[in-house]
Amino acid sequence: MALPSLCLTAFTVLRHIEPILVLEQLGSTFFDTGLQMVVKDRCANATYPDTHLSRGDSQQKAMSDFYMIYNLIIRFTPILPSMLLAWLSDRGWRRTPIVVSLSGYLVSRLVLLLVVLFGLPLEVMYGAAVLFGLSGGYCAFWSGVMTLASLGSTATERSKVLMKVELLYGMTGLVGSLVSGHLFLLYSSSLGNGTILLSVSTLLNLLAFIHSIVLLQVKQVSDPEPEQDANVLSHASIDVTVEAPARIDMVNVVLLFAAAVLYSSAVGGALEILAVFVMKEPLSWTATQVGYGNAAGCMIFLTSFLGVIAFRRCVSDVLLILIGMVSFASGIYFLSFVTATYQFYLARSLNLFALIPLPTIRSLLSQQVPASSCGTTLTALQLSLKVGGLAYTPAFTKIYQRTLDWFPGFVFMLSSILTVLAMIPVSIISWRSPRRRNYERIQGD
């Protein structure tokens, strides 16, 4: 009897979204390390005849130019496909965003593998980025995951459930990053560095794609007390009032969107440059060090989750967001002056709670819309973050290239300033919510 019961439990677990998250994130961490090292290798001999850049600076400029174009394509092309997939999701096709986006993941991983195997030009990855974007990319995938997680939980537990999803994603990334650098160095006499790593990455994404088609199940949980949950947040979220959809406080919604865009721009711009920054002197990281550095970033998923567990009983969601933003602003500011690897890890250790703000903002937004619009709202937020990337990606890249000679870490200081600006709309929400509750109490009397 024990064996059938165990098989039934395993089958039930396999029908959830978590196994797909693990497979996709493992494949993605392998891909990210592989792409980073392939770009470094292909840009090693880059030259700019009309400039006086050194060989190292020329490599940095070539790498940052590649990532700028690559990231712009990834951010621009998913906009319309993601909206279409969100529309299909809210009309009952909940698995569609996940299945379609995973097909794009699979194609992009396969293309990078072919680039390494056959020595294709690095620019081929621009085409892979287009195909990745047309499938909805990360925007559609993550919004689909968040939608399924939100619908599968009650309003009072939603914030915790979403953070658990983030935790699983981060812990998987931590393991994948630690292994990825070592896998990159494995090769046979006929294959070069990275082929085994990228082959495994492609296989993992193939398994995730098949899993989403064959096993993934959509589960929706109804709130036990819909009237109460429709009007107030949980005790941990007392700073923001959640009302019926017809009476949504649009000012709070706009402020949450503004805070998310500013913070995402600060984080995204800094991390894009960080991938190039660690390759230059005096750090000059190897593949193994790249994996360890990525693992340090994934560790923040765990510390952020523990931060939510520790703080949510005594502070509101608004204060949780501010704690996370302060954590990132301090760590990224310190990163501006890093000249050794140990200093890098000290700076990243200050980012302990940097992942708290965005999932908390998503949780607040998801509680202010009906279930039929949950997918559209979360996708709209994700698209807003993507549109912000169209501005900050070239801006951070050009600023980094202009400051290579005198202060390479200037972009990290700029990121810290943007994070401070993102705290302003969040603080306004905290200030106006008590005033709004007092006004409604007076009106009721």
Brief description of this entry?
With 445 residues, the protein is an all-alpha fold. The chain has 17 helices and no strands.
Give, in order, the helices and strands: HHHHHHHHHHHHHHHHH
Number of helices: 17
Shape: globular
Number of strands: 0
Our measurement of the CA-to-CA distance between the termini, rounded to an integer number of angstroms, reads 63 Å
Rounded mean pLDDT score: 83
Poorly predicted tracts of residues:
225-246
Overall helicity = over 70%
Computed Rg: 22 Å
Main β-sheet: number of strands, strand sense, barrel status? none
Structural classification: mainly alpha
How large a portion of the residues is in β-strands, by DSSP E?
under 5%
Q: Would you kindly provide a written description of the structure presented here, covering whatever features stand out?
A:
Helix content is 73%, strand content 0%. The protein is mainly alpha-helical and 445 residues long. Helix 13 runs antiparallel to helix 17 (410-444). It is globular. The chain starts with a helix and ends with a helix. Mean pLDDT is 83; it is low at 225-246.
